[in-house]
Amino acid sequence: MKKFTLNLKIVFSFTACLTFCVFSGFNSPEENTVFIQNMLTKYYDNDGQNQEVKRYEINVTNTGFCRYRKVYTNGKEEFFAFNLSRFKAMDYYGTNTKGDLYLRTKNDDVIIQTRNDSQGEIDSMGTYLVIPLKNIDVAELNALAENFKRINQTLLASNK
After folding, report:
1. Are 118 and 154 contacting, i.e. CB atoms less than 8 angstroms apart?
2. Crossing angle between the packed helical segments 29-42 and 138-159, to the nearest 10 degrees
3. Which of 51, 99, 103, 105 is deepest in the core (most CB within 10 A)?
4. Signal peptide location in the record (predicted)?
């Protein structure tokens, strides 16, 4: 009976370790979206704007949308949004201390809305979204690009 109990403990321990190893190696889409949102918020450069921004919002949802909203001190609002399944590439122009992150889509997939502007309310479409960043290094940019690719592949696979 002791030998049976010992074998049962060994099999149970092996199964538990195997299960832990298998499930710890995969990232869920929620982890990717949280990582992207945290990185964009952490390194956002509020001073890198043409006009003074009163507040901004960056939201990356579990359903695959990236939303960016800016409210300027003069009351003007700009809103950008696109589905991450339409993500094509990420480019960064600048240095470690300051630069612009370009999130590019496959076609005119970025929704652009402007409210309370002197030129009127404008709705249009674009092929990229620009987010000013500061104090970000190459390793963090590479991790950000990898997470964008992962969430894009996950969304494309789930749409098929």
Report:
1. no
2. 140
3. 103
4. 1-24
Residue whose structure tokens are 């990898």: 146
33-44 pLDDT tens trace? 999 999 999 999
Summarize pLDDT for 34-85 with one digit per residue, the tens: 999 999 999 999 887 777 889 999 999 988 899 999 999 999 999 999 999 9
* Site of tokens 């690009």: 145
Higher pLDDT, 25 or 93: 93
Residue with tokens 């970025």: 110
List CB contacts of 40: < 8 A, sequence separation 6 or more.
Answer: 58, 60, 101, 131, 133, 144
